[in-house]
Amino acid sequence: MDGLFDVAGRGHASLPLDVLASLTVLAIIPFLFMMCTSFVRNVVVLSLVRSAIGASALPPNAVLSGLALVLTLVVMTPTLQRIGRDAVQPYARGALTQSQALDRASAPLRSFMLRQTRVADIALFERVARRRGEAPGAAPLSVVVPAFVVGELRGAFAIGFALYLPFVAIDLAVAAMLMGLGMMMLSPPVVSLPVKLLLFVMVDGWALICGGVATSFR
To answer: According to a count of CB atoms within 10 Å of the terminal CB, is the N or C end of the chain lower?
Structure first.
């Protein structure tokens, strides 16, 4: 009986720590969602497309963020299913401790991030963290996450550069036409914006961009 009370007492004492750990995990979930998933590339590419078109306020930020969120869920579905199968469900059944569940949940995220990350970026942040001689797969999350985010920003800006070129060509063509017609007082964006919107709709631009970004992940 004394042993039973001791065990119960230890379990009762550990309950506040479990609650605190759970609240901490819930608090950092938005950060993990942004930094450890495809959200960064999605939202940056969509923002660059809006900037390239020239409609600085349309679509609104809420619409772009919502679309990036939906694309992120589509891209991350296999990873999220693996996390649910390997970590969430066993933890809900009581088969895993909290630390074991977190370790199992981080493994699919690490695998996803490493597939998108260059070895050179991992090596860079290993030097910053003063870690040496580790294989990319053995690098801690403190190294993998910034390397992944830097790679995502690089990839998003590369896609944005490719998307900017057709719109810049339209702007130059419209400006040259207006100069040739002697219409110096007419602002080129006033004419080029409807042209860019028309061409973008004709080629079904949003569908092409969303599909291209979603399929760019390995």
So the answer is: N
